[in-house]
What does this fold into?
Amino acid sequence: QVRLVESGGGLVQPGGSLRLSCAASGTIFSINAMGWYRQAPGKQRELVALITNGGRTNYVDSVKGRFTISRDNAKNTVYLQMNSLKPEDTAAYYCNADLRTTFRDRDTYNYWGQGTQVTVSS
It folds into this structure.
């Protein structure tokens, strides 16, 4: 079984920064991609940033230039560095991993973290 543990959320003033972390543990053969999603009350969940096993990254337009996704393969950890935070960034942020659990089983599975709240307010 796989577990994703998120940390780093909190309350920050507009213009401030936060770094979210998500560590994957358990039966993991390889991670194909990890990403960060967010969901604000009354809004659809959206993909914020994604990083693939090849290092490709994608960002939602609203965070381009402000957020940076990165990974540490040795730790099975993905980070989201969030700079120049805006009130519109306020949401619950969820880590997602698309991964293989064993060498034999070539299927990929998706796992979700519990979510971490980011609140940007004065």
Q: What stands out?
A: The CA atoms of residues 6 and 111 lie 12 Å apart. The radius of gyration is 14 Å. The mean pLDDT is 96.
